[in-house]
Design a protein that fits this description.
By secondary structure, the chain is largely without helices or strands. Helices cover 9% and strands 8% of the residues. It contains 2 helices and 4 strands. Strands 3-2-1-4 form a 4-stranded mixed β-sheet. The protein is globular and about 45 Å long.
Length: 214
């Protein structure tokens, strides 16, 4: 069996690969190894907020409603890569040069129609919504009735996850550099995934939003 994931004690935002590693030279990379409490605390300190799932997806589309990707319907138009995703057969074949096999600097790929860089690929991003497998039907399919759509932690428990039956899960969006068509194509704006709030990983980050003062 190929082991492509492992727990590394001491890995955190300042030591992404574990003790002995640093973020030196990576000041323009996304911050990783941050759980929900980390990102919520940072947003509060900065006077900002985390986007809801609906807000995140609308921003990710960049005005291209209905397109498969944030940049259109073709994965690599004219052979040009548009996001930091896995190249090759995941997890055994990585065709990218070693220096870009993890995160890449923000802005290394083209921005979307709203000028947002790395809105998909590179790292997963936290949203405010608690996870539920399906959204409740709406009389207006184009619009969320409430935002966040799911604000109930108990509704997000994953009974099928070992040890996770009582751990709240929030929605993460955007996919990461580990996403590949043969494994997961979750760098699509429509894709979503559940993430336990206490978890932090090397391909999970966040972005903040600024809300107008009321």
């Amino acid at each position: 069996m190929l082991h492509w994931w492992r727990y590394v004690p001491g890995a955190d935002w300042a030591h992404p690969e574990g003790p002995g590693s640093t973020v030196a030279g990576r000041g323009d990379h996304p911050v990783v190894h941050v759980c929900w409490e980390d990102v919520a605390a940072f947003a509060a300190w900065a006077g900002k907020d985390l986007p809801t799932e609906a807000e995140w997806e609308r921003a990710a589309r960049g005005g291209l409603e209905g397109a498969r990707y944030a940049w259109g319907d073709e994965f690599a138009p004219d052979g040009r890569l548009m996001a930091n995703t896995w190249i090759g057969e995941f997890p055994w074949q990585n065709l990218k040069p070693p220096e870009i096999r993890r995160t890449t600097p923000v802005g290394a790929f083209p921005a979307n129609g709203f000028g947002l860089s790395d809105i998909t690929g590179n790292v997963w991003e936290w949203t405010r919504d608690f996870y539920r497998a399906r959204h409740e039907p709406s009389a207006h399919p184009c619009c969320a009735v409430t935002n966040p759509r799911v604000d109930d932690a108990a509704a997000s428990f994953g009974a099928d996850e070992p040890g996770g039956a009582h751990v709240p899960r929030r929605v993460v969006k955007g996919g990461s550099h580990l996403c590949a068509p043969n494994y997961c194509e979750r760098y699509r704006p429509a894709a979503r995934q559940a993430q336990q709030v206490e978890s932090a990983m090397s391909h999970l980050g966040f972005r903040c939003v600024i809300r107008p003062r009321r």
